[in-house]
Amino acid sequence: MTLTEVKHTPAGPSPAAASVRPLRQRLTALSPFLYLLPALLALAGILGYPVLDAMWTSLKHSVPTDPSADRFTGLANYRAIFGNGAFWTALGHTGLWALANLVLQLTLGFGLALLMHQKLAGRALFRSVVIIPWVVPSVVVAVIWRYLLDPTSGPLNQFLMSTGLTQEPVLWLANQATAMPVVILLSVWKWTPFVAVILLAGLQAIPEELHEAAMIDGAGLWGRLLHVVIPGIRTSLTLASLLTVGYSVNNFNGIWLFTQGGPIGATETLTTFAYRKAFTEFDFGSAAAVAVVLFAGLFIVSTAYFFSVEGRKGRKL
Amino acid sequence: MRPRVEGRLPGLLQAKASRRGFLIGAGSIGLATAMAGCGSGGSGGSGKNGTLTIWASTTFVPGGESALSKAADDFGSKNDVKVTVQGFAANDLINKITTTLSGGGGPDLVIVDVSQVAQLAAAKLLADLTDRVTPIKSQFFPGNIAAATSEGKIYAVPYDTSNVALFYNKKMFEKAGISAPPTTWDELRSAAKELTGGGKYGYMLGAKGYGSYLYWPWLWQNGGQVTTPDFTKATFDSPEGLEAWQFYADLYLKDNVVPPTFLGVTDSWDQFLQPFMTETVAMMPMGDFGIAPLAKGNPKLEYGVAPMPKKVQSSTVLGGNAVAVTKAAKNADLAWKFTSWLTSAEQEKVLEEGYKRIPARTDITGSDFAGKDPARAVFVQQAATAVSRPPVPNWGAIEWGVMADAWDSVIQKKKAPADALKAAATDSTAKLTKK
């Protein structure tokens, strides 16, 4: 197969050529997919197999400390987790966690992106400083923040107490009331730069002429924001929100490294719940059932989101 | 934090206490991240007579060369065996062992916390060593042998032993006019009250599994038992158990002798011992594994170690590690040869010099190592009578699941102590009988 033929494909075969060499043409039309095949197979193996395996495990009594009792139990694991109040609490926390992350990261990320987009002195430095939280590994983030928030030796509490703002140190991560807000803020701190970078790419793709045209039409800052910037970065916004929801729901480190889902379940989300099922209780079947529920939920939400966004686009354009 | 049970806890000491706050939690974070092996070492001999792979926690293999990997080298070159030692974060080790061995691969030998042997045995991942260990059984402390025994069969050889004693700050005691460490519950409570005030506290507690782990001594001191002798029913909510639990919880809830920051002690013994190290707390229950971090973090600290106080009897909880041969071991004789060599009297120095840990061998009593340090002497003395926790497959789910949650609901003031304990006993019985 030659390069010219491949190049030719996107334009579509001419009717005359199709009648002369139909098989060749068909193969040519197929060739992009053939090229993709190895990658698709690898993806199916890497992504598909674990998902199917988890689904299969979720239908079994699978407790490694009790191997002789391994058996197919149908939906028993699902019935068990749906009948468990802790599951519903964790589900609620997952929703709250994802929503808070989405709203805060998108709002702050948009603001940051606008700032990063300005032609200011030291912009390169500013941009690289902003993305630091995102590039630091989550384990390191946890060590740093746990030190800062530590009740006995952490600078934050020492500051609060030395200024007399509090009499007793605040147990940020061990207090039922503060644990969830704190882990949310830490997650926002870590992930907002990522959102900002995506939105910045969107901002940079808006042609300068559009701004000029809008200004000639008399649009102010606000008008340009509403009618030029936001429509211009719609794709980036969609992408960023989808990724944020997906990452947040699956963000195990962001909670486990700080609170392990505690105190008494105050920060338990479905991922920490599944982890505890698997590695504290050694009930792999139930843990897999939670994972499958999580997977199904994300799948539905993201598909619905894509369809609604695509639909809107179709109407507008 | 997977992060668990006793040996899991001391394993967390890998975070250096000397840096005070900063590294607190670093060890636990390491173990929570489900990361792969942290350290490996040891290659030893030519491998002419076979190969052996050993998995241990980072307590023994902190990365790079360790006393254990050196010992493995030594064994390897003497026997022409290629020995590889790999270290895993303490909290992650048991998960790694379970998943890898269940999948058919894995190491020939594992060094695990004594309280996890039964779980691995129930998962049919360990070789039955009953016939090999029985002849040498009497060389080890009975509690450590009991912990390595599951349903009448011995699955591991005791390696090191640890237990919990009472650490007390001599200067703070002197200042409060208390001449000797408390020996009974009442003395402990009144001393703790005396020592509390002006930002200082009398006694230290922990949250999560640290709370449940440190409850067992109180239970036993009061004459209670964790389960029935056949391990099928939880009995720690007996009247003795309830009284012990109430006393234990009241140290914080009513007596206010515990720093409220203990609620944040969820991940490591380093967190636990920090207030004692900085002389904010005058007494704490702690294992011998606390001696080294204290020496490093505050060399000037003047403290003593006394046996735990008694009620109707004295008692403390037993921990430590044991060496087990896995079902993946192709050459069981070779694996056993290494196991018996590592746990022999000649190799006690590996534990003593390399890790400052107490070998689980009875000949340690009265040895130079035991007598050298008065603090350690208390632990050696207690080693013979320390009580092991029930060797049941679901122990982790009970101690770090049910009981940890129950304790947290008490200290977070969500449940009354008695209610929480009774509910925990019901749930634990379900775990004991679950098939």
From TrEMBL, chain A:
Subcellular location: Cell membrane
Domain of life: Bacteria
Family annotation (CDD domains): TM_PBP2
UniProt xrefs under Pfam families: BPD_transp_1
Topology versus the membrane: Multi-pass membrane protein
UniProt domain ABC transmembrane type-1: residue ranges: 91-305
Coiled-coil region(s): none
Keywords: Cell membrane, Membrane, Transmembrane, Transmembrane helix, Transport
Segments passing through the bilayer: 33-52, 96-116, 128-149, 225-249, 284-307
Family membership noted in the UniProt record: Belongs to the binding-protein-dependent transport system permease family.
Name used for this protein in its record: Sugar ABC transporter permease
Organism of this sequence: Kribbella hippodromi
Automatic annotation (TrEMBL), chain B:
Gene3D superfamilies: Periplasmic binding protein-like II
UniProt keyword terms in alphabetical order: Membrane, Signal, Transmembrane, Transmembrane helix, Transport
Transmembrane segments: 21-42
Superkingdom per UniProt: Bacteria
Name of a matching Pfam family: SBP_bac_8
Record family assignment: Belongs to the bacterial solute-binding protein 1 family.
Protein name: ABC transporter substrate-binding protein
Organism lineage: Bacteria, Bacillati, Actinomycetota, Actinomycetes, Propionibacteriales
